Amino acid sequence: MNTFDEKSKLVSIVLPVYNGSRFLHQSIDSCLQQTYRNIELIVVDDGSEDNSVDIVKSYDDDRIKLMRHQTNRKLPAALNTGFKHTSGVYLTWTSHDNYYAPTAIAEMVNFLEENPHIHFVFADDYFVDEADQILGVVKRGPIDRLAELSCLGGGFLYTRTVYEKVGPYNERAFLAEDYDYWLRVSAYFTLGHLGRPLYYYRQHPESLTSRYGGGETIEAAVAVQRQVSGKNLWRNRVLLSQGHLKAASAFYETNRLTSAARNTLSGIALNPKCLLNRRAQFLVTGLCLGQSGLRILVRLKHAIRRIALHGRLLD
Description:
Blueprint: E1 11-17, H1 21-32, E2 39-46, H2 52-57, E3 64-69, H3 75-84, E4 90-93, E5 99-100, H4 104-114, E6 118-128, E7 134-138, E8 156-159, H5 160-166, H6 177-186, E9 190-202, H7 208-229, H8 237-253, H9 257-270, H10 278-314
Helix pairs in contact: 6-7, 7-8, 8-9, 9-10
């Protein structure tokens, strides 16, 4: 139940779309069918080549505004176009393949209204597949780990004061634009966690993460961490080294060896002691010997273990 005048608290939702016709109806519907009615939906078509624009135009709802890019300028640019045209007291954005629980906006607005010292609230997520089957619930946070990893999800809401202070999304931080933004927000404002799932995050082969791969996403996040570290880069070297090695592992698993080698070397340069951990040892060995050589080494290791075990049994 709202404890305030909803009519005075417009919520602006920005929805960037690029060739997202498959799930776009569901995403738009989840915004328009919120129990919190005082919303505006700013859809930004980022140069789609499918019928995404036609889908948006099929809605007869004056809460929808459509903006268009003539070419694909990527997600951060689409977000910035959308937020320039918002009028809301509260702001958020969603993706064309994800969707909200019906009470998501109402619950997050209530949280911010009841906690005026907090300017950014985030909720937990449901993970769903292409058929909307729930795969699990992801508990987001904790906030004090934000400097270490991108631990917030897709369900969030923040005040216009945040937008005016922090400014636009970093268009050079593609694939980590949200993480970059959250880190900048946390430098000035208190974040709050609404500990229940209010957002459905879809896993499918056409998603940004699937198309670009985990390696690029992690590498982009590490680049953001490097930038935020600034003069404290050396103090944060262990954390950054771990990030590079995670990216290297993701690249290695998809046989992108040049990218794997680049991140492995960056991780070692930041923290040579990382060579004592198994991830780094595996990467160095695999990159030097190649995958066939690594398989031989693993088989040899298993053979030695079996011989040693057999010897102990004979004793």
